[in-house]
Design goal:
With 217 residues, the chain is mainly α. The chain is built from 10 helices and no strands. The protein has 3 domains: 3-85, no CATH class; 105-166, no CATH class; 169-208, no CATH class. The relative contact order is 0.09.
Length: 217
């Protein structure tokens, strides 16, 4: 984004902030204006909008349409913001409390890190080094896979590592919530999504957010 366009975008966001009487909408706009310095706050509120679909009350059919037209944020960036926030809140919530998370990590890299942590394929020190690389130096998923192999921690062959049966119910619930959010974003591209599917996703998320939810016996 060049300086001239950036100035136009910032001016447009400021105009909308001044004109809206909706507190939630103003909060989203304000976080969009400053998200270049820290994406976490914007990722958090977009994740919330992906769940409650409040953007529909503002005249938009989808989260991506709202972000593109009102916030001047591209679809790919929306996916990164929501995906990054969901993964970090599920697997490394302490990272979200840091003031220096400026870079948008690659969501695929975060998936590799999350799987490695859950499967304990890396010791804490090695995992921390790779986390630093993904968050602060832009390591891609391919780079992480290579470094895990070099550490001798990744199983040979093409088979993906199996998840530990000892996963806690809380971890399973967080994975369900993240998956539901991702599915909703993908479904926004389809105008004829049956209401039954949306209802099923809502029920699944409600189940995952129930404190005593867990696998049926």
């Amino acid at each position: 984004m060049d300086h001239h366009l950036k100035t136009q975008v910032e001016a447009d966001l400021e105009r909308k902030i001044a004109s809206t009487g909706d507190d939630v909408r103003r909060t989203v706009l304000e976080r969009a204006r400053v998200f270049k310095s820290s994406w976490v706050d914007l990722g958090e509120i977009l994740s919330l909008l992906a769940r409650n679909q409040q953007y529909k009350a503002w005249g938009y059919k989808s989260l991506t349409e709202y972000c593109q037209k009102e916030l001047h944020i591209r679809e790919a960036t929306v996916h990164k913001l929501v995906g990054n926030f969901n993964f970090l809140s599920s697997h490394e919530p302490k990272l979200l409390e840091q003031d220096n998370i400026v870079r948008l990590p690659d969501p695929e890299s975060l998936r590799v890190l999350a799987r490695a942590k859950e499967d304990k394929t890396l010791d804490d020190e090695a995992w921390s080094r790779l986390k630093e690389g993904a968050i602060n130096h832009g390591y891609t998923a391919a780079t992480l896979h290579r470094k895990i192999r070099e550490a001798g921690a990744e199983p040979s062959g093409d088979q993906a590592p199996k998840e530990k049966e000892s996963q806690t119910d809380a971890q399973i619930r967080q994975r369900i919530i993240s998956l539901v959010s991702s599915i909703r974003i993908l479904l926004e591209k389809k105008q004829d999504t049956p209401g039954e599917i949306q209802e099923a996703l809502t029920c699944l998320e409600r189940f995952a957010r129930t404190e005593d939810a867990g696998p049926n016996p």
